């Protein structure tokens, strides 16, 4: 008789060596949930990074929702189904269709990344092969250039002196448009016309002040603006876009397929920022890329700040499966976290500011011993409920790890 299947949940709140500031949030620690599923000797590792200001979810709410997932039914399906057929169904229908699971975007992402990783390991497939892609090329690029992000914690001159080479620059907006204009002007003066510059307002501008701000930023050299107005302000976004020469990218406003179709209907943007956790997992993210292409819109592959493992490789797999993104973010886990909870450490070639495809099988990562203190609960097949785990991750300080 096989060993009981098992699920382990980790809430990882690693301190960041350097902080990251933008108009919607100042972050000094990670806040990710990791889910490790093990069935008949094969394990899959998934991650989500809930952000309340993006999808309304928190780590607590996702963990609570996970308790309601019928894991025994999921384990049985993994045992009974042909893994290749099951993977094909996940790629077509996501975990909602393939397993009958429902919930918020981050819960679905947590489950989907773990399940894809497990199936990839069973089948010997890497992350790019696991990620849906319409019209996928026979051979993708060996490496992709990544954007550099200037947040409010870093001076523009230090950024320009230390973060080259530059392929694409994103500037996190301040609460002072004069500072933003000066920042864009300094970047444009140093880098010339070849490098695109995008200013990310993170929903912080009013509809009345936005037109003048766009004009000033365009005059300084900005090419794009991301999420300038309140989330889902479709009519106002359409008017702003029509009245300016700056391309509008939507991020927080486009979390679901319905959001994407609404943005297209209103002609509210020129591009989507696709992020795996925000958009409900790799399958849903790929579906939104298809919506963008069909509507003649661009897209970028973005990240959540302070991803710690599987999300990093899932995002890169998505980027290599869809290499026509106008830019790709790599995250800064190498700068944020001197110690990681996964191996191998997700890498960025900082000499070229490029990334390579995840190594596989699956998303190619395993937990290290440093993950153990962040474990919060374990579920064993056939048990009546999850068992909480009391741990002391740092400094001997007890954490309340109840779900």
TrEMBL record:
GO terms for molecular function: catalytic activity; metal ion binding. SMART domains: MR_MLE (SM00922). SUPFAM superfamilies: Enolase C-terminal domain-like, Enolase N-terminal domain-like. Pfam families: MR_MLE_C (PF13378). Coiled coil: none annotated. The keyword Cell cycle does not apply. One of its GO terms (biological process) is amino acid catabolic process. Keywords: Metal-binding. Residues 156-247 form the Mandelate racemase/muconate lactonizing enzyme C-terminal domain. PANTHER family: O-SUCCINYLBENZOATE SYNTHASE (PTHR48073:SF2), O-SUCCINYLBENZOATE SYNTHASE-RELATED (PTHR48073). This is Mandelate racemase. It comes from Streptacidiphilus pinicola.
């Amino acid at each position: 008789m096989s060993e009981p299947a098992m699920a382990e949940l980790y809430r990882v709140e690693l301190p960041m060596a350097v902080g990251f500031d933008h108009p919607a949030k100042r972050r000094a620690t990670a806040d990710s949930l990791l889910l490790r599923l093990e069935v008949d000797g094969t394990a899959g590792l998934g991650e989500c990074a809930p952000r309340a200001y993006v999808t309304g979810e928190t780590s607590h709410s996702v963990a609570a929702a996970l308790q309601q997932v019928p894991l025994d039914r999921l384990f049985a399906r993994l045992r009974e189904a042909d893994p290749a057929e099951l993977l094909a169904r996940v790629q077509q229908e996501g975990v909602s269709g393939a397993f009958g699971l429902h919930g918020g975007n981050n819960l679905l992402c947590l489950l989907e990344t773990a399940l894809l990783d497990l199936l990839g390991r069973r089948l010997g497939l890497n992350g790019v092969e696991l990620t849906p892609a319409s019209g996928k090329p026979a051979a993708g690029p060996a490496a992709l250039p990544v954007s550099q992000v200037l947040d409010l914690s870093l001076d523009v001159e230090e950024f320009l002196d230390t973060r080259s080479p530059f392929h694409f620059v994103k500037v996190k907006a301040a609460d002072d448009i004069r500072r933003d204009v000066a920042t864009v002007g300094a970047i444009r003066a140093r880098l010339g016309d070849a490098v695109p510059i995008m200013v990310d307002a993170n929903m912080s501008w009013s509809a009345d002040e936005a037109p003048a701000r766009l004009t000033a930023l365009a005059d300084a050299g900005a090419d794009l603006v991301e999420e300038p107005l309140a989330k889902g302000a479709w009519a106002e976004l359409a008017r702003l876009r029509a009245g300016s020469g700056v391309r509008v990218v939507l991020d927080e406003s486009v979390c679901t397929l319905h959001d994407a179709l609404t943005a297209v209907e209103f002609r509210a943007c020129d591009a989507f920022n696709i992020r795996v956790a925000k958009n409900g997992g790799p399958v849903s993210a790929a579906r939104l890329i298809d919506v963008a292409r069909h509507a003649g819109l661009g897209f970028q592959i973005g990240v959540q700040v302070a991803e710690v493992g599987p999300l990093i490789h899932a995002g890169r797999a998505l980027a290599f499966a869809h290499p026509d993104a106008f830019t790709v973010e790599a995250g800064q886990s190498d700068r944020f976290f001197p110690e990681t909870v996964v191996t191998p450490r997700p890498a960025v070639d900082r000499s070229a500011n490029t990334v390579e495809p995840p190594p596989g099988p699956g998303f190619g990562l395993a937990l290290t011993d440093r993950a153990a203190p962040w474990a919060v609960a374990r579920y064993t097949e056939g048990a009546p409920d999850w068992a909480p785990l009391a741990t002391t991750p740092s400094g001997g300080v007890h954490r309340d790890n109840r779900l």
